[in-house]
Amino acid sequence: MANEIYTSRLILRPIAVTDAPELHAIRSQEEVYRHIWTGPWKSISETEEWIQEIRNGPRSIMYTILQKEETTIIGIVGVNRWDKVHYMIDPKFWNRGYATEALAAFLVAFFKLQPKRLCIQTLLSAENHASRKVLEKCGFVHDAPKPYPGPPTTSEPSEEEEMEAISGAGSNPAPSDSTLYFIYIKPT
Ligand SMILES: CC(C)(COP(=O)(O)OP(=O)(O)OC[C@H]1O[C@@H](n2cnc3c(N)ncnc32)[C@H](O)[C@@H]1OP(=O)(O)O)[C@@H](O)C(=O)NCCC(=O)NCCS
């Protein structure tokens, strides 16, 4: 079971269904869902369902991000049901380094919670410059395009899958479409 994570300015708390109203208010903003494939969540109950699915996913680990002083919910960070890193921050708080601070702390916690994992991946739209910046600041590198197998059904990838993911890292040129793939390899 994941515990809270503390950084200098933030608290990362395992996501709860009761966070739905605040998270729905963030995710309903056009500048937030613009680069997210699944689009806006239409209602608070749809947001609650998304949170419940995340909580039940075999590999998903998602945290709600709060500002430490005000305990205001400002976003989420974690791994989604597709085993991909995902985050969002309320636009009111953009460009203060919060996503970078949250993702860096998440990565440390993730590899402690899942000691057999060797890497973690994500994909983003090529126009999502701020997100690319966050990934690069946290040590992600541009990766080869990957097949899209759908949500995983096992709690951990096999060692072969992990090694295969790592051996392809950064070896291909940018994909021609607008999707970019990034990988973070656990430091040895
Ligand atoms: C991506 C996102 C989480 C970044 O949150 P944030 O707290 O503002 O991120 P940070 O402040 O840690 O870092 C943002 C960096 O992007 C840079 N940036 C912001 N807008 C930019 C732009 N249009 N072009 C280039 N760089 C940009 C900032 O200057 C900063 O870099 P710096 O520290 O070198 O100055 C936020 O924009 C967001 O929630 N977007 C919508 C959801 C989303 O796209 N999630 C990712 C899905 S893969």
UniProtKB/TrEMBL annotation:
Gene3D superfamilies: 3.40.630.30. This is Acyl-CoA N-acyltransferase. GO terms for molecular function: acyltransferase activity, transferring groups other than amino-acyl groups. It holds the Pfam family Acetyltransf_3. Residues 145-178 are annotated as: Disordered. SUPFAM superfamilies: Acyl-CoA N-acyltransferases (Nat). It comes from Microthyrium microscopicum. PANTHER family: GNAT FAMILY, PUTATIVE (AFU_ORTHOLOGUE AFUA_3G00765)-RELATED-RELATED, N-ACETYLTRANSFERASE DOMAIN-CONTAINING PROTEIN. It comes from the Eukaryota. Residues 10-164 form the N-acetyltransferase domain. Keywords: Acyltransferase, Transferase. Residues 169-178 have a biased composition (Polar residues).
